[in-house]
Amino acid sequence: MYYQEKDTPAKARTTTLNEQLGQIERSTTAEGVTLNRGKPVDFSWNKHADSKFEYLDHSLVDCIRSKKDQDALEFFKLLSLCHTVMVEQKEDELVYQAASPDEGALVTAARNFGFVFLSRTQDTITSARWTRK
Description:
Layout: E1 2-3, E2 8-9, H1 17-21, H2 58-66, H3 70-81, E3 86-90, E4 93-97, H4 101-112, E5 115-120, E6 125-129
Antiparallel strand pairs: 1-2, 3-4, 5-6
Helix pairs in contact: 3-4
């Protein structure tokens, strides 16, 4: 986080910052673009999406689906590959088992954005980029 007007980066001065970050709500981006937060994103374009995952920022989904921001695409690809999560297939549904809730949430987020972790062996990790429109 950064406050451009005073050229000042944010400093963490508490150990409970993670709990407090969940309480932050912004209706616009730093550039003043209004975020569409009226209703959750429709992930029906992604057959691997977790139906329990609810996300409200349509602009990030649009950014990923447009494939114009290579840094964002690389970020989600890395989220889908760099972890210790295990996966099971149960009744046409991917079920992730993670060592921590945070790790599971990050891999699930990548999955919903189209970067799907599918399997792991001792030597390989398999993921897929789901791009159907």
